[in-house]
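We now fix the convention by which a protein and its fold are recorded. Here is one such record, which you should read through line by line:

>
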Amino acid sequence: MRLFYNQTSPYARKVRVAIHELGISDAIQFVEVDPWLESHDFIDANPLSKVPALVLANGTLVTESDTIGQALHGLTVDSQLIPKEEPARHLCLGRAALCQGLIDATFICAIEGRRPSELRWADWVARQERAITRTLSSIEARFDLHDRRFDLGDIGLACGLGYLDFRAGHLSWRSERPRLADWYERARVRSSMIATRPC
């Protein structure tokens, strides 16, 4: 299998963390790309020119980080990425989706910040930052945060918080969310998180 990724992409990081957690790194060829360059080799594999993109051994293309996570889960007999039983399964997928939205909002802010200052849409960024703040407060109040589990939802949360620190440190999210801050301090030192830190 081949995984196309970018070192700073939070979406690709989710997949890379999942691969490390599953212990299947040796079965995957990691191909680092810059999706903005739209290189011929990458577009040939994924016409969207977006990361992550996983090409399975049979040539099937799987895109989008949560979909790739589900595909990886299905390839591994003892995978703990997604619980088998309800309601734990739906709770995991629900957490993963909310954390995907957290990453999306942060990514939008980061991309908008790259535009020339006269073209930036300040109201759009402010809306995303309000969504980030609300989502973090909801997670603080409602998520079951513990160390006995590191499933697809937890991976999304850890990578989302890591991306916030990387691209939106000015939001200073920790002070009002002590449960979440404590959980992240433990999650961020997992070997899978250390191995995939953006740089």
In short: The chain has a mean pLDDT of 97. The longest helix spans residues 88-114.
